[in-house]
Specification:
Elements (H helix, E strand, L loop, with lengths): L1 H22 L4 H9 L27 E5 L3 E5 L5 E8 L31 E5 L10 E9 L5 E11 L6
Parallel strand pairs: 1-6
Antiparallel strand pairs: 2-4, 3-5, 5-6
């Protein structure tokens, strides 16, 4: 009796596995194509860069940013010949940069740690920056093309206090 029941169970399992194997028409490639089809394709629109006739310097940065106090503020400039990032207080006073801040991640207490060297990337580590919460600051980006034309854009940002769970 037990032997016959076990034999029937084995037959049912084999038939079920066979059914699943036959009914599965997807392979890895079709599954990846189905998954990737859920996302929009990459646009083939080429954004203008400094020096192009239709380049608009007012689009280099967003006009306003709100940044939590536990994170890093990162911005990237468009491709250009030179880049200069300057951080200002709202009254126009330049916020001094820590001279030994390695790409914006320094720990100097007296100055703000951001990288304003001639790099395309701006990086400001907020927790050690000594910038005040609730105060509006301005970030100026100046880029130049190979012909020496200078383009400027300014963004305002405010740091807000936020709690998060580790």
């Amino acid at each position: 009796m037990k032997k016959g029941l076990l034999q029937k169970f084995k037959i049912i399992i084999v038939l079920a596995l066979g059914f699943f194997a036959i009914s599965c028409k997807q392979n890895v490639t079709t599954m990846l194509d189905a998954y990737n089809g859920l996302f929009e394709g990459v646009s083939d629109v080429i954004l203008p860069v400094p020096g192009d006739p239709d380049f608009d310097p007012d689009t280099m940065l967003n006009k306003y940013y709100a940044i939590p106090n536990y994170t890093t503020f990162n911005e990237c400039a468009p491709p250009a010949y030179t880049w200069t990032w300057t951080l200002y207080e709202r009254d126009g006073t330049t916020v001094p940069r820590s001279p030994n801040a390695p790409f914006g991640y320094g720990r100097t207490a007296a100055r703000v740690n951001y990288d304003s060297r001639n790099t395309q990337m701006f990086s400001l580590y907020i927790p050690t920056s000594n910038l005040k919460i609730g105060v509006t600051y301005e970030l100026e980006l100046r880029v130049s093309d190979k012909q020496g034309n200078v383009y400027t854009d300014v963004a305002e940002f405010v740091i807000f206090e936020s709690s998060y769970i580790n």
